[in-house]
Design brief:
The chain is of the alpha+beta class. The protein has five domains: 164 residues, Beta-Lactamase (2-Layer Sandwich), CATH 3.30.450; 48 residues, no CATH class; 93 residues, Beta-Lactamase (2-Layer Sandwich), CATH 3.30.450.20; 72 residues, Orthogonal Bundle (Helix Hairpins), CATH 1.10.287.130; 150 residues, 2-Layer Sandwich (Heat Shock Protein 90), CATH 3.30.565. 53% of the residues lie in helices and 20% in strands. Strands 2-1-5-4-3 form a five-stranded antiparallel β-sheet. Strands 7-6-10-9-8 form a five-stranded antiparallel β-sheet, sandwiched between helices. A hairpin with a 2-residue loop joins strand 4 and strand 5. The longest helix has 60 residues. It is rod-shaped, with a radius of gyration of 66 Å. The model has no long low-confidence stretch (mean pLDDT 87). Its main location: membrane. It catalyses: ATP + protein L-histidine = ADP + protein N-phospho-L-histidine. This is histidine kinase. Its EC number is 2.7.13.3. It is found in: Cell membrane.
Length: 597
């Protein structure tokens, strides 16, 4: 609490105290003054009446001479004893005796109300009036004296009321003094009490402030054993609970964070308004954003894709689990499978808290699927062509329409060529699928490539000489070992030299050299043939890709040779490059394989 607030509170309490005290003491004063006044006056009146009655009885019974000195003296003594003034007035209003003034000097008293009342027989009239004779508030009581059944005199007794005034003044003084005292004690005690209370409140306020700022260890201990102490105990209890709860929460939160971070799939959570609430490291990496910058922002601001936005909106609306596929630019186009799941509030399973989006990158899977299905289409096509041609020629021969032997022989030759091509095709497909499927499981060993290469030379030289191609083949005397499958390596070189001879016109030149450089075995197959256009080079190693389909077929090619070469090179952890100076300017394939240390 601020000092100003404390002061305000103190002032409020003080003024309330003061006003209550003043009102109550004024009320008490007023009531007690009134009460004392009345009872005093009543008492006085009773006394005066009794005396007046006594005097009246005296006058009546003794037939005293009112003018006698002794009676007058008696009255004076009586007045002195009773501290009252006695006046006897006859029925005409003339004052006969007065114990305080000379009777003959006094004026006619018929106009005095108490005298008038007594002269008409009233016995209990009392009048409070200001007396000019005595210069004071006086209480007057008059009593009639009957002589021979008619009222002959009125005996009047009076007393000044100055004593009441003194009494009232004293009462007021006492009350004022005790009020002042009470006030003083109230202020002293009250301010001490308020101070203590305010201290406690301030401590409580401080504690809650510190707890709200995250200091959950903070506790408060009050000693004044009142409601505030009880409140403080409740506060401490609450803080304990809060502390335990927060610790538990933060523990489960860090477990959750660790779990989230360990998941390789990108995960994003959004609230029902599609604002991002959570994101794991994988998601941050994929979309190149940070959770801190994205939190609270709409999903569209994080992943700018309207289609995704629509799908997420629908998932939020339709609920339950959902999955769909979508292409996103991150920044290159990729295909993702997206799984969404609504999250509900634990205590209210109808209320949707948000949506969890799990993202799976299936670009590679889709690419492979596409390659595979294209391959199947291509294989089917490649198989169908020779088969159609074979069955056509077989049909014709069977019909017996062709009688010319020469033509029959030609047809059979074509059937043979097509059958061979089919066999080659099937072999190539088998080889390719073997290399692809076995890959790492295939038996690999250390071997010196010289022996296999010599076999390749003796296999290929006749082919070259048939075409009148100069064949240059060079293997150095000493070669390092390499790791891999020997048969496959052989196949690799055969495929390249086969192409070189096939795509080099008669009289050309084909050369093969192998050497070591920078820890690598370098194999070069070079020809002076038709060359390869620049634009075809990137696709050259794809299955069934040919620069010139008709030419390849005429040569008996399957379109799988280079695809097989590429896979073998990869299986041996090597690299392959193609150089061609352009159409008609020859081609060179360069393979580098890691040498075994
Ligand atoms: N040495 C080369 N010179 C010219 N073109 C070549 C050469 N080697 C391969 N090619 C081109 O690459 C294509 C694919 O080769 P490959 O996979 O071995 O299939 P093919 O069965 O046609 O030989 C060939 O059709 C050809 O167009
Ligand atoms: Mg080939």
């Amino acid at each position: 609490m601020l000092p100003k607030e404390v002061k305000d509170l103190k002032r409020k309490i003080f003024w309330s105290f003061l006003i209550i005290l003043l009102i109550s003491s004024t009320l008490i004063g007023f009531l007690s003054v009134n009460l004392v006044n009345r009872s005093y006056t009543n008492e006085l009146e009773k006394r005066l009446l009794t005396n007046a009655q006594l005097i009246a009885t005296m006058i009546r019974s003794d037939k005293v001479d009112l003018t006698s000195k002794s009676f007058q003296q008696g009255m004076k003594e009586m007045a002195e004893v009773g501290e009252a003034r006695i006046t006897i007035i006859d029925s005409s209003g003339k004052v006969l005796i007065d114990t305080r003034s000379e009777a003959h000097e006094m004026d006619n008293h018929l106009d005095r109300p108490e005298v008038q009342a007594a002269l008409v027989g009233k016995e209990k009239e009392r009048v409070v009036r200001y007396s000019h004779t005595t210069d004071q508030e006086m209480l007057y009581v008059a009593f009639p004296v009957k002589v021979n059944n008619s009222i002959a005199y009125a005996v009047r007794l009076s007393m000044d009321l100055s004593e009441i005034e003194i009494l009232t003044r004293n009462i007021v003084r006492y009350i004022a003094v005790s009020t002042l005292f009470g006030l003083l004690i109230a202020i002293l005690l009250g301010s001490k009490l308020i101070d203590k209370m305010i201290d406690s409140i301030r401590a409580l306020v401080n504690m809650t402030k510190q707890i709200s700022q995250g200091d959950y260890e903070r506790r408060i201990y009050l000693t004044n054993n009142d409601e505030l102490t009880e409140l403080a105990e409740h506060f401490n209890h609450m803080a304990d609970k809060l502390n335990r709860l927060i610790t538990k929460l933060s523990e489960s939160n860090s477990r959750f964070q660790a779990l989230l971070a360990s998941i390789n799939n990108p995960i994003i959570a959004v609230d029902p308004k599609e604002n991002v609430t959570l994101m794991n490291v994988a998601a941050e990496k994929l979309f190149n954003v940070s959770l801190n910058d994205s939190k609270g922002h709409h999903l569209l601001e994080v992943i700018r894709n309207n289609e995704l936005d629509e799908l997420i909106k629908r998932s939020l609306k339709e609920g339950t689990e959902n999955q769909f596929e979508i292409n996103l630019k991150v920044p290159e186009e990729k295909t993702f499978r997206i799984y969404t799941n609504l999250i509900y509030r634990e205590e209210d399973p109808i209320k949707v808290m948000g949506l969890v989006i799990l993202i799976d990158d299936i670009t590679e899977i889709r690419k492979l699927e596409k390659i595979r299905s294209e391959f199947v289409t291509n294989v089917t096509h490649e198989l169908k062509t020779p088969l159609t041609s074979i069955s056509g020629f077989v049909e014709t021969l069977k019909s017996g329409e062709i009688e010319d032997e020469e033509t029959q022989r030609r047809f059979l030759e074509i059937i043979e060529i097509e059958t061979e091509r089919l066999t080659r095709l099937i072999n190539d497909i088998l080889t390719l699928s073997e290399i692809e499927n076995i890959k790492n499981k295939e038996s690999k060993s250390m071997f010196n490539p010289s022996k296999a290469l010599k076999e390749v030379e003796s296999m290929m030289r006749p082919m070259a000489s048939v075409k009148g191609i100069e064949f240059y083949f060079e293997i150095p005397g000493k070669l390092s070992y390499i790791k891999g499958n020997e048969d496959r390596m052989k196949q690799m070189v055969i495929n390249l030299i086969d192409n070189a001879i096939k795509y080099t016109p008669n009289g050309g030149k084909v050369s093969f050299i192998i050497y070591e450089r920078y820890g690598q075995l370098v194999l070069r197959v070079k020809d002076t043939g038709i060359g390869i256009p620049e634009k075809d080079i990137p696709r050259l190693f794809e299955r069934f890709y040919r620069v010139d389909k008709a030419r390849s077929k005429k040569m008996g090619g399957t379109g799988l040779g280079l695809a097989i070469v590429k896979h073998i090179v990869i299986s041996m952890a090597g690299k392959i490059k193609v150089h061609s100076a352009g159409p008609g300017k020859g081609t060179e394939f360069v393979i580098s394989l890691p040498r075994h240390q």
